[in-house]
Design a protein that fits this description.
By secondary structure, the chain is of the alpha/beta class. It is built from 5 helices and 5 strands; from the N terminus they run H-E-H-H-E-H-E-E-H-E. Helix 3 crosses helix 4.
């Protein structure tokens, strides 16, 4: 949803500030970005994909590196979670780059106190209460011996519109 929102506003040069690739969310979110871009005939530049880190400072350093120099730069950054978004915002502030005028930013996960951040970051959010509820139900079922099989749940994401994407078209 987020990558499609970027593409629909004309962004083709998208960077991915990802989480660690040895955890499922890092792999799955990167695959989602790739699939969305491929659906529109676009290619994800590997040099614009962070390969790890799980701290705001990791994200901050990576964004500063991507926007350093005089070469081609992304017009948008997809952040794989709210911690990566925090680091991205810090780096852009340090680089004096404005959102969305200079670079668009989207986030998988909402920032704490998001309503105080301007511009509001376009994001998708999960339902942590429902995730915890399902996990608790599974644990109880296993403790009672009622469930031993692997379970797979897909919960819907909610798109939270913001004003962090500039239209290039």
């Amino acid at each position: 949803q987020l990558v499609e929102a970027l593409i629909q506003k004309g962004h083709t040069e998208i960077a991915v500030n990802n989480v660690l690739m040895n955890i499922s969310s890092g792999k799955e979110r990167l695959e989602g970005v790739r699939m969305a871009m491929q659906a529109y005939g676009l290619h994800l530049r590997e040099e614009w994909v962070s390969r790890g880190g799980f701290t705001s400072d990791d994200a901050r350093q990576w964004v500063k590196q991507i926007f350093a120099g005089n070469g081609l730069k992304p017009t948008a950054v997809f952040c794989a979670n709210n911690v990566m978004t925090e680091g991205t915002l810090l780096a852009l502030e340090e680089l004096n780059l404005r959102i969305p005028e200079d670079v668009s930013v989207v986030s998988f996960g909402e920032l704490p106190m998001h309503q105080l951040i301007q511009p509001r970051i376009e994001s998708v959010v999960q339902d942590p209460f429902r995730i915890g509820q399902l996990a608790g139900e599974l644990v109880l079922m296993r403790l009672k011996g009622e469930k031993e099989d692997f379970c797979h749940y897909e919960l819907p994401l909610k798109l939270k519109h913001g004003n962090s994407i500039r239209s290039l078209s």
